[in-house]
């Protein structure tokens, strides 16, 4: 069965504006093939949540698919909005048109938007993949994530990258990952270690000098960095990596091991895997969720895995 109708959520700001060209090409293909769709454009930060709520609440189309054209942040918002409606099981299609596109990598979709479009159009039934749900207890916030939630180093790097004057230029040159690397180096030399308590399967682990604390749904963060190679978006579990504070030579050594996929073998790197994970920090730390800033505060987070239907053919 083919998708009967596509509700498109398009973020023209994704990929620092490069999504606009992608969108034009996709629209052309849909028109050429006489595929039925309706377009909703995200006009401001967070708007995709409202658009997805409208789609989920007022859908009258049989076999409808919500198709997101944007980056990981737009996908996150669209799923968050949809799951707040009476139609949370509408399948979600996705065309990666952002700077990082880690979700596409993580589930094995093409990162080329036109190839990804074919993967969406070829689908004849939904597939189910894990996503994460979090509760931030200090503020009572809840939400979903498709990639990861990070506290500490990666979140500080996201904040530094977003403030970087080079981000826009590098994105236009399709070098978004380089912008993130500049952010990484900037914060490595300025961030201090912090204590974190992790609760998994009834066991508490205290790590006094943590540096990076990232709960992830699949291996990638930061635009293609394979931070946790063993994480799978199909296993009904989330994965947590905690890296302890390192001196510069050890950091550089671990970066090399990261490139080789061997960094998790070292004793200053802790890995946890479970359907539910909780963690607490006591100092003021940056947080990031799917590359979006969560602010700077002490975090008390409870994570659980959930399932989401996606409309894509990965065969
Ligand atoms: N019309 C808009 N103008 C400005 N910002 C917008 C608009 N619509 C959405 N946004 C915001 O754009 C931001 C970036 O979106 P998104 O994450 O999809 O792209 P990206 O950052 O380029 O990609 P990635 O997360 O894959 O690196 C999000 O915070 C989103 O809320």
Automatic annotation (TrEMBL):
Signal peptide: none annotated. SUPFAM superfamilies: NAD kinase/diacylglycerol kinase-like (SSF111331). The keyword Lyase does not apply. One of its GO terms (molecular function) is kinase activity. Its cofactor is Mg(2+). Belongs to the diacylglycerol/lipid kinase family. This is Diacylglycerol/lipid kinase family protein. Residues 1-138 form the DAGKc domain. NCBIfam families: YegS/Rv2252/BmrU family lipid kinase (TIGR00147). Keywords: ATP-binding, Kinase, Lipid biosynthesis, Lipid metabolism, Nucleotide-binding, Phospholipid biosynthesis, Phospholipid metabolism, Transferase. InterPro entries: ATP-NAD_kinase_N, Diacylglycerol/lipid_kinase, Diacylglycerol_kinase_cat_dom, Lipid_Phosphate_FormReg, NAD/diacylglycerol_kinase_sf, YegS/DAGK_C. It holds the Pfam family YegS_C. Its EC number is 2.7.1.-. It comes from the Bacteria. It comes from Lacticaseibacillus baoqingensis. The keyword Membrane does not apply.
């Amino acid at each position: 069965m083919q998708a009967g109708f596509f509700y498109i959520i398009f973020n023209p700001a994704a990929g620092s504006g490069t999504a606009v060209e992608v969108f034009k090409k996709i629209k052309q293909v849909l028109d050429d093939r006489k595929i039925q769709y309706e377009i909703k454009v995200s006009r401001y930060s967070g708007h995709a949540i409202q658009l997805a709520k409208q789609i989920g609440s007022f859908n009258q189309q049989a076999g409808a698919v919500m198709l997101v054209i944007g980056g990981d942040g737009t996908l996150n918002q669209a799923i968050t909005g949809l799951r707040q409606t009476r139609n949370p099981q509408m399948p979600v299609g996705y065309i990666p048109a952002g700077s990082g596109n880690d979700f596409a990598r993580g589930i094995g979709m093409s990162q080329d938007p036109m190839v990804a479009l074919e993967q969406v159009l070829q689908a004849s039934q939904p597939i189910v993949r894990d996503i994460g749900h979090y509760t931030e207890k200090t503020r009572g916030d809840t939400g979903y994530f498709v990639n990861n939630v990070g506290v500490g180093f990666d979140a500080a790097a996201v904040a530094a990258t977003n403030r970087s004057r080079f981000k826009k230029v590098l994105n236009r040159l399709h070098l978004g990952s380089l912008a993130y690397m500049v952010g990484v180096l900037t914060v490595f030399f300025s961030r201090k270690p912090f204590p974190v308590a992790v609760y998994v399967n009834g066991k508490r682990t205290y790590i006094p000098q943590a540096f990076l604390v990232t709960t992830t749904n699949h291996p990638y963060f930061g635009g293609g960095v394979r931070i946790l190679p063993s994480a799978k978006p199909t296993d009904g579990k989330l994965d947590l990596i905690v890296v302890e504070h390192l001196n510069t030579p050890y950091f550089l050594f671990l970066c090399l091991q990261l490139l080789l996929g061997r960094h998790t073998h070292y004793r200053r790197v802790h890995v946890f895997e479970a359907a539910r994970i909780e963690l607490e920090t006591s100092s003021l730390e940056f947080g990031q969720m799917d590359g979006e800033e969560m602010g700077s505060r002490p975090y008390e987070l409870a994570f659980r895995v959930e399932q989401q239907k996606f409309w894509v053919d990965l065969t």
